[in-house]
Amino acid sequence: MKLSFRKAKVADLKLLVNLLADDELGQQREYTSSPLNMAYRQSFEQITIDPNNELIVVEQDQTKPIIVGMLQLTFIPYLTHIGSWRCLVEGVRIHKDYRGLGLGTEFFQWAINRAKEKNCAIIQLTSDKKRPDAIRFYEKLGFSASHEGFKLKLKH
């Protein structure tokens, strides 16, 4: 299956929100109303104007390309590790009809290469403990659960 990777466009936004909502956890925190809540559009605009953020989609190349996945990369300068850069990966989704076909692995290889292009020393992510399949996937890619992660919700 031939894949292509590109920055998301505003026209993709409804589909991206639907991807984020397409599992048990996403259904609890996303809102797929029509029209979309304006907060999604505002966030999308902030992501696209920030040079340290990239919202990426993966498309299956066909006569008419189909978006089959997404992720967000955030490039962060740190003082630690001798003033290096990190790449934070968030919002990873592969459409449920395309899971188990190797797309996620290919997408992550692309993301890792993108982090290297940006001279990142570390690529990091978090995964909800309620997603054991995702955790196994990241471990197969070479990620290790080397730290405990903490989150504090400030609003819901």
Describe this structure in words.
The model has no long low-confidence stretch (mean pLDDT 92). The chain is built from 6 helices and 5 strands. Strand 2 (53-60) and strand 3 (66-77) form a beta hairpin. With 156 residues, it is an alpha+beta fold. It is globular and about 45 Å long. Strands 1-2-3-4-5 form a 5-stranded mixed beta sheet, sandwiched between helices. It has a single domain, classed as Aminopeptidase (3-Layer(aba) Sandwich). It has helices at residues 13-20, 24-29, 38-49, 80-83, 103-117, 132-140; strands at residues 3-7, 53-60, 66-77, 85-94, 120-125.
Principal-axes geometry comes out as: globular
Assembly type of the shown chains?
A: single chain
CATH architecture descriptor: 3-Layer(aba) Sandwich
CATH topology: Aminopeptidase
Cα separation of the termini: 39 Å
Radius of gyration: 16 Å
Point out poorly predicted stretches: none
Order of strands across the biggest sheet? 1-2-3-4-5
Order of helices and strands: EHHHEEHEHEH
For the residues shown, what is the average pLDDT? 92
Q: Helical percent range?
A: 25-40%
Number of strands: 5
- Tally of DSSP helical segments: 6
Largest sheet: 5 strands, mixed
CATH class: Alpha Beta
Structural class call reads alpha+beta
CATH superfamily: Gcn5-related N-acetyltransferase (GNAT)
Share in β-strands: 25-35%
Domain module count: 1
